[in-house]
Design goal:
Layout (H helix, E strand, L loop, with lengths): L4 E3 L2 H14 L4 H14 L16 E3 H5 L3 H14 L6 H21 L6 H5 L3
Antiparallel strand pairs: 1-2
Helix pairs in contact: 1-5, 2-5
């Protein structure tokens, strides 16, 4: 597996704290799963950016994905194929981080997201 450890930016950490307050979801990994899937659902390719790993928040791939690690990785790889990207192992982690951070931003900036029920109603 190419992705072993996920490091979040300080901005993403702050946004996750906001999402925790809004939704009542206390676990970083659960919020990150929602964020990742939110970004994957967006048709556009996430913009290329240099995302710093400057926060104290990190998690292993196993913690992020739980028992569905193969599924999340397959979703990422299929999305890269759909976007006509050929990714190396290093590129795969960067692409994942772009989706994760974009999804965290989308969820945080969603003014309609005020509780866990409004998050759940997105599906």
């Amino acid at each position: 597996m190419a992705i072993e450890t996920i490091h979040l930016s300080e901005k993403a950490k702050s946004q996750l704290l906001t999402l925790k307050r809004k939704t009542g979801i206390q676990h970083w990994n659960v919020l990150c799963r929602w964020a990742f899937c939110t970004s994957l659902a967006e048709e556009s390719i996430p913009p290329e950016e240099d995302i710093p790993s400057d926060s104290s928040v990190e998690m292993s791939w196993k913690v992020f994905s739980g028992q569905y690690g193969d599924i999340y990785l397959a979703l990422l790889r299929q999305r890269s194929i759909n976007d006509n990207l050929k990714l190396s192992a290093k590129d795969e982690l960067a692409y994942f981080r772009l989706h994760l951070h974009r999804g965290i931003s989308y969820l945080t900036n969603n003014r309609n997201l005020t509780s866990i029920s409004t998050l759940y109603s997105k599906i």
